[in-house]
Structure formats: C-alpha cells, structure tokens
Amino acid sequence: MAVNIKPLADRVLIEPLPAETKTASGLFIPDTAKEKPQRGTVVAVGNGTKDHEMTVKVGDTVLYGKYAGTDLKLEGTDYLIMREDDILAIV
C-alpha cells in the first residue's frame, strides 16, 4: 500500500484494524455499540529525533490507547497519526 504521507520526527501513521462485528458468543454488534479499535497496522514511520530512536517499523501490528492519535481520512481510508510514545505494545 503506497501512502503519500511521511510522518515527521517521532510520529507514526497507523491504519486501524476493523472493529469487532460479532461477540465471542456469536451475537452481532450494532454500529452504534461498536468500540473504537485499539489495534492497527503501522503504515509509515518518522525518522525519530536525536533523543528518541524509533522502535516500531512499517508492517508492525500495534496496540494503542482508545483516545490516542489524531484521525485522518486519505483517499477514503481512515488513519491515525500519533507519537510513538502513545503506542502501548507491538503484537
């Protein structure tokens, strides 16, 4: 996937994974009750700063906070841009 966005410094561009549509017991979740995804795939990574070397790389699946990042929509696709510090874990 080619994205024309290059994050600056310690920022990361993430494509959120789709929200769950069905519970573990098989019940379908209506759109109004779906939670905001907290998992996504790293699409682009900044170069870091002299004090902060980047640890995530393109293609990593990561977990992030529910309210982390800034929502972006580019060519019909939703993305989040956030600082690497807002990422909680690499899965």
Quick overview:
With 91 residues, this protein is an all-beta fold.
Based on helices, strands and strand pairing, what is the structural class?
mainly beta
Number of strands: 6
Strand order of the largest sheet: 4-5-1-2-3-6
Q: What is the tally of helical segments?
A: 0
Describe it:
With 91 residues, this protein is mostly beta strands. Helices cover 0% and strands 36% of the residues. The protein contains no helices and six strands. It has strands at residues 11-16, 39-45, 61-64, 70-74, 77-83, 87-90. The protein has a six-stranded antiparallel sheet, with no helix packed on it. It is elongated. The two termini are 20 Å apart.
Features:
6 strands, 91 residues, single chain, mainly beta, elongated
Topology (elements, then pairings):
Layout: E1 11-16, E2 39-45, E3 61-64, E4 70-74, E5 77-83, E6 87-90
Antiparallel strand pairs: 1-2, 1-5, 2-3, 3-6, 4-5
Protein name: Co-chaperonin GroES
Keywords: Chaperone, Cytoplasm
GO molecular function, one term: ATP binding
